[in-house]
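Batch manifest line 387
LIGAND: fe (ii) ion
JOB: complex structure
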Amino acid sequence: MGSVGVLLLNLGGPDKLEDVGPFLYNLFSDPEIIRLPFRWMQKPLAWLIATRRTKTSQANYKYIGGGSPLRRITEEQGEALKAQLGNLGKEANIYVGMRYWHPYTEEAIAQLTQDNIDKLVILPLYPQFSISTSGSSFRLLEQLWQQNPKLQRLEYTVIPSWYKQPGYLQAMAELIREQLNQFPNPDGVHIFFSAHGVPKSYVEEAGDPYQQEIEECTQLIMQTLNRPNPHVLAYQSRVGPVEWLQPYTEDALKELGAQGVKDLVVVPISFVSEHIETLQEIDIEYREIAEEAGIHNFRRAAAPNTHPVFIQALADLVIDSLTKPNLKLSQVTQMKKKVKMYPQERWEWGLTTSAEVWNGRIAMLGFIALIIELITGQGLLHLIGLL
Ligand SMILES: C=CC1=C(C)c2cc3[nH]c(cc4nc(cc5[nH]c(cc1n2)c(C)c5CCC(=O)O)C(CCC(=O)O)=C4C)c(C)c3C=C
Ligand SMILES: [Fe+2]
Ligand SMILES: [Fe+2]
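JOB STATUS: finished
ARTIFACT:
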């Protein structure tokens, strides 16, 4: 085989405070993040929500030095992966493609089509699959593929999720062990897995495998760790009015505090780099909640970042994928639909009769409510802090 390319997919984050508004606008413009009945509503609503959220979000980014470290860490992971693949005798070009900020996925694709690589491995830096993360990047790539005949001639394979990869589990176990060993009685410490949340409807109506993959991943990390500690799993970072996966991290912390738990190690599990939700949300907000609840010894496991065991795991993933049959984007963007409610109420991708009925009703009500809210400055979106 000739030259190999590895495309690392990630979410992206604002590099500086001025980037926060446009970054949020890009994020809320994505129908995989906010699903609206009509496409034309997406951009105006994204602009409104982003504009109103910018100040709060900027204040959070200020706490972590005025910008996200995501680009720097992802690029460092790319360099370390390149070096490790080289050590294993596999030369590869690494490309970083972010979904909502620089370097955008489109920029990575433009570069890799110039480099004339022979085979591309598409590796999302999310261990577990969600419609809102890897799924969104895969859909974008599918569109780019449709528009570009050069890409259509390129041999590629996708790694949809990789939370079972033994090296990844080893790296997570090692990072947890490091924190447990700081306590006088390591075996008595509670391990608190905090996963990024998603709206409950993603799982129950759209068939997002995210919750199941998170739960299985938690079990596998505990098995790999092989320690007797009690553990819990909760979901953080809820945004907007709808119900998200439960229990919420803040509630679970309060409950553990009420049970008399004093020693805790929090483990972020949906993401492999430090970012605002580890450095600000866990380290500052959740630490404060835990402290108030009486959990006085609060530590957090570091994200894998460029931990050598983790980088080795990424290299193994790439090498394994080159020996397996190729997986196409069209194979990983098909959702398994689970039907929970009446047929006319179920989540539908695309234009169907039942979707149209609900689209019409919701769009009319939503649009009227939005206009009233914009004129009066009062309403649901203000109430929940989105406007
Ligand atoms: C696996 C990880 C993530 C999932 C799942 C996810 C879903 C999701 N996120 C939002 C809304 C926001 N996310 C924001 C930033 C952000 N989110 C993730 C990861 C996941 N998101 C990352 C890595 C980042 C970037 C962090 C950085 O360091 O810059 C933000 C902006 C920050 C803020 O204002 O809080 C929002 C908003 C939704 C709605 C969602 C699922 C539908
Ligand atoms: Fe958040
Ligand atoms: Fe997010």
